[in-house]
Amino acid sequence: MSDALGLTPVHVNRVLRRLRVLGIMRLRGGVLVIEDIARLALLAGFDEQYLQRKLKRAA
How many helices (H) does the chain have, and how many strands (E)? Predict the structure, then answer.
């Protein structure tokens, strides 16, 4: 995963551990499952209106 993202394995492991501790995601059998997409979006500072603005400009 770290190679695909261009990040160090240490950084990716720390972030995944934090997300796991917060109950946002889990790893099971090599599959990453997002348990709480709303909390992940909040933690990441995601603004869903960003996509709407992009789509309106393209139309």
Answer: 4, 2
